[in-house]
Amino acid sequence: MDTTRTTGAGTRAPARARRSRRTCSAIGLAAVAALGLTACSDDRAATGPDDSAGQRSTASPPADLAAGQLAPDGRTTDVVSGLEAPWSVVPVGDDGDAFISERDSARVLELAADGSTREVGTVEGVRHGGEGGLLGLALHDDDLFVYSTADDGNRIERYDLTGDTGSYRLGEATTVIDGLPANTFHDGGRIAFGPDGMLYASVGDAGQRSEAQDRDSLAGKILRLTPDGEVPDANPFAGSPVWSLGHRNVQGMGWAEDGTMFAAEFGENRWDELNVIEPGENHGWPEVEGTGGEDRGFVDPVQQWSTDEASPSGLTVIGDTVFVANLKGESVRAVPVSDPSSSTVYFQGEHGRIRTVLPGPDDTLWFVTNNTDGRGDPRDGDDRILSVPLTTAR
């Protein structure tokens, strides 16, 4: 799972020990030498789809799929492999180009449509540790926004991008907001621009549970800002960037075509959540986990899952379907926008931990594995971005 659960009153359950990177055996090195390749090093480069046999799987939609809902339908293929703890992926245009953040190295990579990668730059001052590091990315007006952990707290910066496809570089950085609550766990970290052109950011409770209920604290919140970091006039609390509160650790946000905002949230020991977000609403943490808070003035999730089957991270909405990446659940979940209380699970256990989902080119879904972040079981070629065709039920 991605975020440390707790057992009992204030006792943290031990996270899985960080795994050592695999090393090549003598036989493996001989085979690599014979092929004239370089691999199995700590500094290995990401490789395109032709350079790895990949971890193939096939998905098919259920027979009772609701009309209009999208579903994976076909064989997965590798878009790129050999990534190190990837966290966020944002498309650049419609042809398969994208930017990738690597949590621990603080590198931003440019992914080309042919599957090759190159370094765009390294975000300065990133403090790596636990769940912290270089996290969310978002593009807006040719600027790249990045969410990262620094010595004095979490922050969002805006980078001028220089160059063009195949030659992008990180230019000058401007701080949008800093001093956000930070810890080695519960750092939130997802940023996205909504249909209103505003910047939304998820901030975890950073281990300060009670502050999720404090409107004067930014811990355990979803924030809404202008691209320059100002507080929009239409925010629910005058002068405050807080858009919603009572969150533990939101890591997925997205909007349906009708403007409905969805967010995926890590619970503690019992329930992970899918929430519909409205301005000013309180989602209950830490007073309530999962459903059961409406009588106390809190907003219940539209769907909940046991923590063992979910640990939801990235989220995207394509057409009438919400797709959610699951870390401990090792799956991609599809939820109808029209009936968000139901869902269908795909790829369970087939690719390990899934961190991020996003629309791919040509009616595909991309999803990103996260097996090299110290809590997964890396497989040959991990981590990777995979692509699968999408079909629409009729």
UniProtKB/TrEMBL annotation:
Residues 1-14 have a biased composition (Low complexity). Residues 83-375 form the Glucose/Sorbosone dehydrogenase domain. Residues 1-20, 46-78, 370-394 are annotated as: Disordered. Residues 374-385 have a biased composition (Basic and acidic residues). InterPro entries: 6-blade_b-propeller_TolB-like, Glc/Sorbosone_DH, Quinoprot_gluc/sorb_DH_b-prop. This is Glucose dehydrogenase. It comes from the Bacteria.
